[in-house]
Amino acid sequence: MQADALAQVRALDTQLTADPSTLAGVPPAPVATLVIFGAGGDLTKRLLMPALYNLAAAKLLDPAFIVLGVDRVAGDDEVFRGHQGEAIDAFLAQRGSHAAAPEATAWPWLRERLFYLQGDLTDPRTYEAIGWRLEERGRSDPAGGSAVFYLAVADRFFGPIIDHLAEADLLNENGRAFRRAVIEKPFGHDLASAKALNARILKVLDERQIFRIDHFLGKETVQNIMALRFSNGIFEPLWQRDHIDHVQITAAETVGVETRARFYESTGALRDMVPNHMFQLLAMTAMEPPNSFDADAVRTEKAKVVQAIHPLTEAQAVECVVRGQYGAGALGDAALPGYREEPGVAADSRIETYVAMKVGIDNWRWAGVPFYLRTGKRLATRKTEIAIHFKQAPFALFRDTSVEKLVPNILTLRIQPSEGASLQFSAKVPGPVVRLGGVTMEFRYADYFGAVNSTGYETLLYDVFMGDATLFQRADNVEAGWAVVQPVLDAWAAGQG
Ligand code: BG6
Q: pTM, whole model, 2 decimals?
């Protein structure tokens, strides 16, 4: 990708959450057809359409852009437009009063660019029909045949859809038309299946055409970890084993399994969150500075640090990992069912809804510094954060005072719900005797940059159209994550832990 185009993508990444009218100078994405497989599903309504709406409001889509929604369910363009319109209404209502006013023309603009194709994902005729559509679009302008195939479907369809696209010769890029595939998670179920899926799709697609999504990378504050570390002189010298005692990475949710029991019963918290989202946070925190923002430079550093996680022995896979499952409880006055009472969950399910683990990174920067990861559903608070705990100062000076212990220095990077960062340190409590109190310096995103209006998918979709894969997982990133958790999956499958 050209350096100036890349700079523009970066400018957009930082500006997308701001008022769309401030996006002057950011170029619209090149013309393309966004083919969404699973267009009738939840992801399309909840995230993709609102993100496209925001991109349309910011005038970042080409006038000739269209969406071709593909799904099994009977329907036509008008029905599809109606359903997506309801989704946009719900998105705007939920976005609340502190958001910028809805852009009046964005929805009509997007609405007339939505088209629907009823088709079975396993039937070659579906792909023939998509092919005709793209061919027709490329007839007057070769670039008009560019397409992004978005696989918003259950993971068992990933391989078959890519195979069908290849058989129908829809993945070949000729002339100026690009062909790209966006693959949602879960990317594999374990190390072997992730490798098999990578091998299968890499037979017919070049790595640069593949965009494996991890939606955590669309979050502004996750991207901000790189800005915080590498654009400030004060943090990086401390960012290593001499100064850091340990790191805690938490993704705690208050929601339960909701309507996803079918998926979750064969997944669980470890597979659902750790090799992907949690390791992305770990990689952003622990990677070496990349040479540039180039996609491969960033992804190489991320792969290196995850590959450097100390492989868990059989014993460590049991000792360093704990799992749990939520029982019945209450939220205020409302009684909440335990996991096993949730609709669709087996009464004797052993699926974990909570997992915590300790890992070490075998490299010069991090040797001996434990990283504690924990994630779970139906926990007391919703928070995703990275807490860097620094080593204690020597206590000597305070030995003969009333100070009994020092407050630890903790730099907390808050990903959600209140995005920002805080630094905890000690200060003297005013008065004649020496007493120390813990105080906190706070930075809140909202105070500086206003309320965040984006879904996180805007940046990711825009980057796909621009061909910038920095925020997407490369094959080795995905496999490195699975390799770390595989001993745990094996131990659990053998009834241990
Ligand atoms: C998804 C998981 O990938 O991430 C869900 O499948 C989880 O189980 C979700 O709830 C968390 O994402 P966020 O953005 O709500 O923190």
A: 0.91
